[in-house]
Amino acid sequence: MRLISKSITAALISCAVSAGWAANTIAPQNGNWIIADELGGKPGRGMGIDVQDGVFLMQLYNYNKDGSATFHMATGAVIDNKVDAPLKKYKDGPYFGSGRRDGVEAENAGNVKIEFTSRTTATIQLPGEEPKLMHRFNYESTPEDQWSDPAFVERWAMVAMDADGKPTSTFFADTAIGTQMAMVPNMAAGWPYKSSSKFTVHTLDLATPNKHGFMECEYLGSNMEFSCVGEQVDTSSGSSVRKPISLVMQRSIDDLQGTLTLDGSDTKVMGARVEQTAYAIEESKVVTRAYFRRNSLPEAGTWIISNEVTGKAGRGISLDLQKPVGSKHLLFMPIYNYDEKGNATFHIGMATHSPSAVNPSLPAIPVMKYKGGRYLGGPAQDGVEDVYVGPEQITFNTTATGLIQFPKEDPVNFKRFYFGIDQDRIDSLVGTWALVPHAGAVKHRILNLKKTASGVVEDKDAGYTCTVSYWLDLRFVCEPKTVTADQQRIRLGAGFYGAARAILGDGGSLPDSSPELTAIRITDAQGNLVQGGPLYPVDDEGNNPGNGEAAAPTAQIGTVTGAVEGGTVTLEGSGKAAAGKRLTYKWTLSAAPAGSEAQLKSADTISPSFVADKAGSYVITLVVNDGSKDSAAAKVTVTVMPKDGIRLLRDDDSAASGQALSWPYTGSSEISASVACVGACENTYKIAQYKLQVNGANYTIADLKATNLTSGSSVKASFEGLADGQVVTSDKPVSFALRSAYTNGKTVNLKFSFTIKETGEAFTYTSTFKTN
């Protein structure tokens, strides 16, 4: 787009810096916006809004008094979340098929005044009109109580922030309904929500694959906010360490904000949606029906024709690609250009554009012209279709580049218009970046890049120096002071206001084989958050001014272990509420073993207790109240051991590790394993692992047998960590595994069994087993 020249951009940046745009606390979402009371399902007017490092650009499509389509544009600095800028019209620019034409200013309609109240909402006063509410045009049409399209698993690149808004670490969060998440290949063992129709979250860091968070979510009643509660399971030490984890989060299109609570400690997080995948079961196999990578989806905002940047007025595009629930991705793109008489006009292209790596759908996009809608200062009225201009074709190479063919024109390159920074200069990297690894063994990176007196951009603490270096679709290279396994070259693509692609290493002849990173720009050169501010409006107490209500509080109960018959069980609760709200607690003992007379003491405090007078399961619920609303009930089941007894527990890498199992125990499995290793290799395979835990008296293992039931097979089954006649004592729990020698492609049937001599309780496990 040539609607704003480089010289004007430089002046705006200088103005914004001198005015101190650091006072801004809100960075609006870039893309298409609409006036709230004009969203009626019929053609009307709207605006493309782009704010980059405090510099504001708005393109308004609307109408003249005679009903003809037109557009206006405003540019200025955002100061204290407000804009007051002249709204101008242009003429004599290029029309479809005209070739190069330079536009000139035609008129100044007066000033437009905008105040942003969140990243997705604002008030706007157009010339000759009263102030009105406007909001980001979100046409994904997600129902209020759904996080996203239930047919898809979404992957979010997440960044954890400290109290000062500085990034500290990164991870991924997968979100989906439980049944869809269960189909993810290589899903962490023991996914606990396989049958859940609720939305769930799986947190993971591919560089530390032994740590996973599992959560199930409830809608909090407004503003796409969900409360997710569950456990984090860490097996990096060889045993399962389990901690309570919760995430209160909300989203708008590709942006996520929230608070992660792990083991009682709160951390602010932000996220960018980087993948969408739809799985299905076909002929008893999991298949991928659709897969979208962030690099195939364009960054929302203003785009321009690459060879039309001349410093004079021209044409431009305000582009959005969103995925409505139950439908394919839909491209919406107002085109701000001119007619053959030189009058400013606009066209809109809107159609399916589904760049899936599986079954893509990229049809031609019909381009329409409209008439009869509302003019500045005029009464409310709907527009109608005027002229079908023709089809256009679009493909995207990266989040910031692509190829477009307008009606009556040849294909040309087009790109994201970065006017708040100069993307061709290394200075554009100044600020803080978070790099999220997509492959295991690759560490996350936080780069705090500064420009030195010598003009070099570097992070001295991290040991990286960055320069402009074009290589395929990647624009910059950051070199470590010393190349090591942990410190490697990083190549970055363009993407300053959304997630972008980066790779680790030199790339070589096959860049797609290089370890991939998602790059997210966190702060700009002045230290302002690039995605700062709430996604939806809140007042000082965390309330939603739109409906006068605060979101409901949330409750959480800590894990209880080691409960023994006759002992006192102490519970620990916690809750979250809007700022300024004080919580009260209400605990209920909702189920207990037959004959139990247990009662909760101090049931209105944060830490009640009860005497476990019977062995068995006790179910306790917690509801917190913030003075006006109850939370959804949090629930925990406490398993109490007999005073003298032996307990069998799962002891593996799954989310169910530590779960108490009932006597007599019968288990089974069907395993077909592919085994590969380098260096010293085990010569047996671990089929399952358990733990015996005793309270009171000692217990003896009897009749221990590991048998291969397959006729003619020499494959040997064995117990590891457990022997016939072994005594299990209360001071030393026993962890044991069921193992088998490799079968060399043969299928064998194995049986493992033992009894507890003193009680007669029996353990039986069978497995149909095969290895390469």
What is the secondary structure topology, with strand pairs?
Elements: H1 6-19, E1 31-35, E2 46-52, E3 55-63, E4 69-77, E5 82-91, E6 104-116, E7 121-125, E8 132-136, E9 153-161, E10 167-177, H2 178-181, E11 199-204, E12 211-219, E13 225-234, E14 241-252, E15 255-262, E16 265-282, E17 285-293, E18 301-305, E19 316-322, E20 330-338, E21 344-352, E22 365-371, E23 384-396, E24 401-405, E25 412-416, E26 431-437, E27 445-451, E28 457-459, E29 464-471, E30 474-480, E31 490-493, E32 500-504, E33 516-523, E34 543-544, E35 549-550, E36 554-557, E37 568-570, E38 573-576, E39 584-591, E40 609-611, E41 616-625, E42 634-640, E43 645-650, E44 660-661, E45 665-673, E46 684-695, E47 699-708, E48 717-720, E49 727-728, E50 734-741, E51 747-756, E52 762-771
Parallel strand pairs: 45-52
Antiparallel strand pairs: 1-2, 1-8, 2-3, 3-4, 4-5, 5-6, 6-7, 7-8, 9-10, 9-16, 10-11, 11-12, 12-13, 13-14, 14-15, 15-16, 16-17, 18-19, 18-25, 19-20, 20-21, 21-22, 22-23, 23-24, 24-25, 26-27, 26-33, 27-28, 28-29, 29-30, 30-31, 31-32, 32-33, 34-35, 36-38, 37-40, 39-41, 41-42, 43-44, 43-46, ...
